[in-house]
Amino acid sequence: MSNSVQLDARVPMEMHGARLDQVAAQLFPAYSRSRLQRWIKQGALCVDGRPGRPRDKVTAGARLQVDAALDAVVGWQAQDIALDILHEDEAILVLNKPAGLVVHPAAGHAEGTLVNAVLAHVPGVEQLPRAGIVHRLDKDTSGVLVIAKTLPAHLDLVEQLQARSVKRQYSAVCIGAMTGGGTVDKPIGRHPRQRKKMAVVESGGKRAVTHYRLVQRFGHYSRLAINLETGRTHQIRVHMAYRKNPLLGDPVYGGRPRVPAGVTEVLVRTLRSFSRQALHARSLGFIHPVSRQPQRFDCPLPQDLRDLISALEKEDPSHG
What we know:
- By secondary structure, this protein is an alpha+beta fold.
- It has helices at residues 20-27, 33-42, 114-121, 151-162, 235-242, 265-273, 303-315; strands at 4-10, 45-47, 50-51, 63-69, 85-88, 92-97, 142-148, 167-175, 182-185, 188-190, 198-200, 209-217, 221-228, 279-287, 294-298.
């Protein structure tokens, strides 16, 4: 595995006057902000051939270049954790992530994460941006996830994500008996008061587009097929909550859990025992970074979601 990286980009007009570290994060999204700041301080990330400081303002048209060693991420430990592998070859690893598994080590989750497991399965991946992780799933979202095993594969897949050519379909159950599908096209950013949450932010948010289709309507809930056009943090959860149909079981965006009046005791027990947001990454489509052939990987619904849908079919039938 190559242990160096060369990057080259021009500052676009809309980033004129922004901080160097912020512009670098936008132009080189495959790399973490902390790694980019380290490269700036080391002189490995230069502006028009000259080193700078993270807070320096950059001008439109300036050339940002990186020539740096890919050092291993410090502090992330390999752990022998079982992986549900859907596909593996020399360039990529496609997994079925179970609900409850954190993707990246962080404060409070230094061990037992997906990255810890991947580090043990793919030697050398600790040198890659984000340890090969191309896109994330929330801790309590299950389903298909692709990981790059080489730097060229990682950069290629990140470019596909930026070009919005990666096809991602999710299965979800939301609150409310919906009458049809549609699209939510609303920008998402940090919640103005609760910094750990995301929200629809009309000023300063990043564009986010979610397409949803009604698959099955129950008496008080709806099963949806959801396609992401963009990939913002918590996008589906935020957009569905915005349109007053939060995901069933969502502890952050669903508000206080409420059981509809008049439902059966069986359904009450089912709803109270379902302890995560009802969201599953069902399929993932992209161009293979080496063969250039279209790839699609499907991941069946996990047992807890199958049980939930079965209970809704029996105990909360639609009368519409």
